Amino acid sequence: MELLRNAVRPYAWGSRTAIPQLQGRPVPAPHPEAELWMGAHPGDPSHVIGPDGTERNLLALVEADPVGQLGQRCAARWGGRLPFLLKILAAEEPLSMQAHPSAAQAAEGYAREEKLGIPRDAADRNYPDPTAKPELVCALTEFHALAGFRDPHRTIKLLKAIETPGLAKYTALLEAQPDPSGLRALFTTWITLPQPAFDELLPEVLDACVRHVADHGEFTVECRTILGLGETHPRDAGVLAALLLNRLTLRAGEAIYLPAGNLHLYLHGIAVEILANSDNILRCGLTPKHVDVPELLRVVDFSCGEMPVQHGESAGRRMAVYHTDAPEFELSRMDWAPDERTEVVLDSAGPQILLCTVGDLLVVAADGAQVELRQGQSVWLPAADPAVRVRPLSGVRTQLFRATAGAGEG
Questions:
Q1: Which of 122, 185, 294, 380 stands the most exposed, by the fewest C-beta atoms within 10 Å?
Q2: Helix (H) or strand (E) holding 314
C-alpha cells in the first residue's frame, strides 16, 4: 500500500485549471494539462512512494513480480501486464473523433503492421499493440460528449429541421434506409466527400444551424455543437459526421461505457476515465493526428439508439459499481456526506488503485499501516496486500474511486 506519483499529459485540448486545482497546485498552470495517468502504462508509468520517500517505477515493479503485484490469475490472463489505466481527463476543447478495435481486430491489425515493418512509434501506425481498448468515462463535473450513432429516425428529424438544398439528398439517403446499413452509407459518403463538395456543403449546414439556434429549435444543443466544431475545424468532414452521433450531457457520477467500435468524441468537462492499457485508436477527423478512414470503417459499429448512461449500481451502503463486459477493468465509486465517518472495508481483489477526488481519507492496512489520501492523490494496492479499511479524515463531503481488474481477474 503506497502513494502514487502520477504523470500529467500536456495535450493541447487540456485545461490549465482542472487538474492543478484538484491536486491543490497553483492555477492556472503554465500549459494545458489534459490527463493524469495512474497505472503502469509503458509511455508514462506511475511511481510508488515508499515510507522513506524513495520512489520506484510501478511498471518495473509489476514486471519484476507480476504474481505478487497482479495476482496469479490476472498475471496469467494479461501476460504479466496491469490490464487497466486510470485517468483524470480534463477536456477544455474537443478531442478527436475516434473508435477502438476489438481484441480480434487489434491482434490482426498489429500482426499486419508488424509484417509491413511499420515502427511501433510511427505517427501513421494504427495498432502499436495487439490489445483491445474499451473504456468507461464517469463525470466529475458536467461532461459533454458525442457517443454512438443516434436512432436514424431521430437523425432524419434533425436533418429535416436544418435541411438545405445541398443537404436534402443526404437526408433522403438515410430516409430510404433508416437502419445501421443506412448510417454506414451516409457516414461513409460524408467522411469521404471530395473537399470541394464538402467546402460547398458545410457552410450551408452551419448557416442552417445558426437559424435553428436563433429560433430555439428542438435540436439547439446539437446545432451549437456542430457550430463549435465547424468553427475550429472548418474543412474537416468530422463536423458532418458529428450530426449522426448521440449528444450527451453527463452529470457528476453518471458514466458511459464505450466498447469496441463505438464512435465517440469528448467535448468538454472533467471526468474519471478507466480503460484497457492499450494505445490503439482509429481516428476519422477533428484532429491534426493520423487519420485512416478505411481502417476506421473496418472497426466502427453502426448499431444505433440511445447511449446507455450508468449511475452506478449499489454494492453496499457506500459503494456504487459501474458494470461493463470489459475483462480488463471495473470502476467503483464511494461517497460520504459531510460529517459521515463510516468505515468501508475493501477486500483484496487483485491489483487496485484508489483515487480520492473530494475531501481526504485514511487508508488502513491489516497490519496497522496507514496512508492519508488527500484530494487528487491515489494509492497502489498490489494483489498480495490483504484487505484495507477506508474512512474520511475530515467532516467534509468525500469521494473515492476504486479501479480494479475485471471480475474474476484477481
A1: 294
A2: strand 313-314
**Same structural domain, 194 and 224:** yes
The mean pLDDT value of the chain amounts to 95
Does 362 fall in a domain? yes
Map residue 260 onto helix, strand or coil. Answer: coil
Residue 142, CA atoms < 13 Å, CB-side half-sphere:
1
Q: What is the CATH number of the domain that holds 364?
A: 2.60.120.10
Residue of 77, 81, 125, 283 marked catalytic:
283
* 178 in the same domain as 212: yes
Q: How far is CA 225 from CA 5, 8, 219, 304, in A?
A: 36, 28, 10, 20
DSSP 304: B
Q: Which of 182, 212, 244 is the last residue of a domain?
A: 244
Report d(CA 134, CA 326) in Å as an integer.
7
Q: 284: closest CA among 95, 13, 97, 93?
A: 97
Helix axes 152-161, 180-191, angle to 10 degrees: 50
Domain residues for the domain of 124 are: 2-146+250-286
Kindly state the average pLDDT of the residues 211-238.
96
The verdict on 9 and 44 lying in the same domain is yes
pLDDT at 408 over 70: no
The pLDDT score that the predictor gives to residue 371 is 95
For residues 306-333, give the mean pLDDT. Answer: 94
Active site residue 5: no
66, 69, 74, 76 alpha-carbon torsion, rounded to 10°: 20
- Residue 298 inside a domain? The answer is no
Residues 221 and 274 both lie in one domain: no
Label residue 262 by pLDDT band (50, 70, 90). very high
Share of the chain above pLDDT 70, in %: 99
Q: How many domains does the chain have?
A: 3
